[in-house]
Amino acid sequence: xxxxxxxxxxxxxxxxxxxxxxxxxxxxxxxxxxxxxxxxxxxxxxxxxxxxxxxxxxxxxxxxxxxxxxxxxxxxxxxxxxxxxxxxxxxxxxxxxxxxxxxxxxxxxxxxxxxxxxxxxxxxxxxxxxxxxxxxxxxxxxxxxxxxxxxxxxxxxxxxxxxxxxxxxxxxxxxxxxxxxxxxxxxxxxxxxxxxxxxxxxxxxxxxxxxxxxxxxxxxxxxxxxxxxxxxxxxxxxxxxxxxxxxxxxxxxxxxxxxxxxxxxxxxxxxxxxxxxxxxxxxxxxxxxxxxxxxxxxxxxxxxxxxxxxxxxxxxx
Length: 317
Hints:
Elements: H1 8-15, H2 22-38, H3 45-72, H4 93-118, H5 120-137, H6 149-170, H7 175-180, H8 182-198, H9 200-205, H10 211-244, H11 262-273, H12 282-285, H13 287-316
Helix pairs in contact: 2-3, 2-6, 2-13, 3-4, 3-5, 3-6, 4-5, 5-6, 6-8, 8-10, 8-13, 10-11, 11-13
């Protein structure tokens, strides 16, 4: 299906699905501010930019590989508001595959630069991320087609992103960014699940097993609700446990600012619940894009929480 094709740069920009970049950029930003506030790091702007651009490049490669694979298997044939460039007829499968390989090479090259600057811990984190991208659509055990896609994005575009950013700034690995990034990582799964929930008919027809089509339509709503609201429960629990226990560093109470995003989560759940009688025709088909917006808001509030804590500590000193 061909729609009006934009110019060269805009075509490739839209082909990478920039709406989804919140899943790769926010963990890097969060892991970086955690390293500065809790890891005793001094800001390395060059390393930060290498990590940020590298993550976006790898994410773009993953999106393009996914577009090519889905179109080739006949899974992606209908244009929706957040569709990629292949199904729209803007790029051929071979063009998109070439672009995916180029983005992958850029990401790997930038990652290699970080290994040179930081050391071996980044290599192991980077290899795990690249492996999950390559195995997501291809290989003998394609993660996407065996209901492991949710786990893959949780690890790659959440936990590993924050852990990698922390390590880039501090030079060492810590449990802190990985554990504290779990709430936003769950929201990344929400983006993917909204996509797979919409695609249950085509995925089932194509023999693809996702968590969404294993659960079915009704239970997918319950799962989506969990993915929307669990992050807030995690944050409240982290703050409470930190206050009662002797864990160091403790998650500061300023992280409760993330509750400001709760009304948006409620709104998205209602959109999912009214999928059979939507207020707007795009309410459900574009739910993945809307879920990415929640991920962005929640993640920025997490970053703001770290900044607020630093400010409070300086005032109290």
